[in-house]
From TrEMBL:
PANTHER family: METHYLTRANSF_11 DOMAIN-CONTAINING PROTEIN (PTHR44942), METHYLTRANSFERASE TYPE 11 DOMAIN-CONTAINING PROTEIN (PTHR44942:SF4). This is Methyltransferase domain-containing protein. Residues 116-201 form the Methyltransferase domain. It comes from Streptomyces fodineus. GO terms for molecular function: methyltransferase activity.
């Protein structure tokens, strides 16, 4: 079992990815110090303007600027990136999904391999694993998240990583261009992923399961994938989409874990930074919020039960014609 305390710093830091065993030998305080050193908080600075959208579907990209991307842009503008200032102690009975994801994607890397990450948000999760690849591109539909990503990239000095405003459905990349496509709680566009992958290449996708924060959503009467708890597991649907696109699913791993927020205020902060409960409003939702906190507060804190999954798939290698 892994226990990690999030103490007003982001869990995502670039550099050498941590393995599960390394993570579990660190005290929470040590982990927090690492992160603070790697991501010193800075006063807001003007951010280099992003290149305009490339001809890879600029109009489509703009049109596809969904409510989703608008939500993430608001988060980036208000909080300076995609991370939570909320303090919690997280207990991972099935392993820590982000650490497992990092290990899988790092193991697929090679000095000349190209990695495409879709829905990269503020880019820190991508920067953390990027050293395993020769060239890395992160795409997202939120300009504000990408401004944060470019700032973190510049701080990291990682010159082989680029960020672009681009729709995952229309990357415009050549066929067979990348060795690996990743999406960490980002979009899944199976046919586009299959197209840009080279034969033998892999997709690694991390998603949110149907049981995620169920008790919270039931209390609020709404939320991401509301009322899908008794339907087909969402990971199966993702695996099916990848397989329908011609990929071979090699992994479907489930992670149930618990987050214990140190106070009701920490949970409130967290809910403002994520889309778990759509349009969460501390004033309008106060009654439901208080009811939830009263029902789930235990000695360790205010409990939030999470359910994530990782699905991995491979594009079949090209078959050499047999000599006649
Ligand atoms: C949950 S966040 C991803 C977090 C990030 N992968 C990480 O590990 O920290 C989802 C991101 O996907 C982006 N997104 C949603 N639809 C997209 C699309 N069609 N193309 C590219 N990015 C998209 C959103 O703007 C948002 O930044």
């Amino acid at each position: 079992m892994t226990v990690v305390t999030r103490d007003a710093v982001t869990p995502a830091a670039f550099g050498v990815p941590e393995t599960e065993s390394q993570r579990s030998t660190k005290t929470p305080a040590m982990a927090a110090v690492d992160l603070v050193e790697e991501f010193p908080r800075k006063t807001k600075e003007p951010v280099r303007a992003l290149q305009p959208l490339t001809d890879r579907g600029s109009r489509e990209g703009a049109r596809a600027m969904t409510m989703d991307a608008e939500f993430y842009s608001r988060v980036a503008e208000r909080f300076g990136g995609y991370f939570s200032d909320a303090r919690s102690t997280d207990v991972f009975a099935d392993g820590r999904p982000d650490a497992v994801f990092d290990e899988l994607v790092t193991a697929l890397g090679a000095p000349h391999a190209r990695l495409l990450d879709v829905g990269c948000a503020d880019g820190r999760s991508l920067l953390r694993i990027s050293r395993a690849y020769g060239a890395v591109i992160g795409i997202d539909l939120s300009p504000s998240m990408l401004e944060c990503a470019e700032r973190f990239r510049a701080e990291s000095g990682l010159e082989h990583v680029t960020f672009e405003l681009c729709d995952a459905a229309r990357t415009g990349l050549p066929d067979g261009y990348v060795a690996v496509v990743t999406s960490r709680r980002g979009p899944l566009i199976a046919h586009e992923f299959e197209r840009v992958l080279r034969p033998g290449g892999a997709v690694v996708y991390m998603g949110i399961g149907e049981q995620d924060a169920r008790e919270l959503k039931e209390t609020f009467g709404r939320g991401q994938n509301f009322d899908s708890w008794n339907s087909r597991p969402l990971s199966e649907g993702i695996a099916q989409e990848l397989s329908d696109a011609g990929l071979v699913v090699t992994r479907n791993q489930t992670f149930h874990f618990e987050e214990f927020y140190h106070s009701a205020g920490d949970l409130d902060t967290f809910l403002q930074q994520v889309p778990i409960v759509d349009n969460y409003d501390p004033a309008a939702d106060k009654e439901a919020f208080d009811r939830y906190v009263a029902a789930v507060t235990v000695d360790q804190g205010v409990r939030l039960s999470r359910h994530w999954f990782i699905v991995q798939a491979q594009k079949p290698a090209a078959v050499e014609p047999s000599p006649s």
